[in-house]
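Q: I'm writing up a methods section and want to include an example of the input and output format. Could you take the sequence below and give the corresponding predicted structure tokens, formatted cleanly so I can copy it straight into the document?
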Amino acid sequence: MTDKIVLITGGSRGLGQSSALHLAKQGVGVVLTYLNRSDTAQAVVAEIENLGGCAAALQLDTGNIRQFESFAERFAETLDRVWERQSFDYLVNNAGIGIHASFAETTEDQFDALMNIHLKGVFFLTQRLLPLIEDGGRIVNLSSGLARFSLPGYAAYGTMKGAVEILTRYLAQELGPRGIAVNAIAPGAIETDFGGGVVRDNPEVNQFIAASTAMGRAGCPDDIGGAIASLLTGENQWITAQRIEISGGMNL
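A: Here is the clean output for your methods example:
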């Protein structure tokens, strides 16, 4: 068992949920955020508690920077109340949305929505939480395989994720003196409800991905959740500023 605590944004479903459960099984205390489905978030908390772990859920719109100050206060109160801690150890910037639109058809509103959640939100939420992160802690930012290879309809999304990878390197440089490791995880196509569940629910899309992947299948949430848990809790102290793609060898 460990006395570590992780904050996972968007931890009530998909990759965030899988990461939360993998970390809880290793004894890590979990605080997860959700946007508007409190029932789903509380179900994850209950599942972690049934495993013998400890968890809490807090509402947060990661695309609304004005919420970050009050969120940090609620988060600090939760740390004190549940764990009698004034700090936490791991941050997973996972929350995200998918918008599929060609470059020619992408609207400014769509671009701004992606920017606010995937880049601006990650930048300023991490900044606001720095005083609460323990020296020697670890941060994982979610990127995407779409920052390496391109598929029609993801110009804006892939652009944001490319920027997240650059931000990751700058964070690693500036937080290195505190012993904080910062890395980016870049999933390939995963069978979740992300983007309307197209990878999971559309057989043609799923088969297309499997055919372009060295391992011969689309990914599942546990492929990513297990890797994030390993990166945070394993013997990986010397890994920082890296882009780690977890795609089964997609589009090699």
